[in-house]
Amino acid sequence: LTKQWYQRRVRVRSLDQFANLLLTQTIERIHVRDKYGDIDRGVFLIRGENVVLCGEVDFRNSKFKNLIQVSQEEILQIQAEELKEKEEKQKILKKAFQERGVPYYSIDSMADDGF
Length: 115
Fold this sequence. Notes:
Blueprint: E1 6-15, E2 21-32, E3 35-46, H1 62-65, E4 68-69, H2 72-99, H3 107-111
């Protein structure tokens, strides 16, 4: 899982002493609300310096049981709509803070390390 609830379902082809990973048959799973969609991504090479933790996700967990699978196009559209809604809320908050003379920093901008 990444910080934005993207999930990669992969077959680990190679793993070396530096935690460099070669992933094949990679499928990116995007979660938005109670829906998810899979996108075939193919082969990934991840350098070990970018690996924090590798492990399995228990899909029998109740958090994943009630999700509805939708097509790739539909999940991307839902994701874009949610992002647009989030950006609109951020604009409203920023304006309200600025009107009161208070600096506003969104949580997303603080979490982004710029790399």
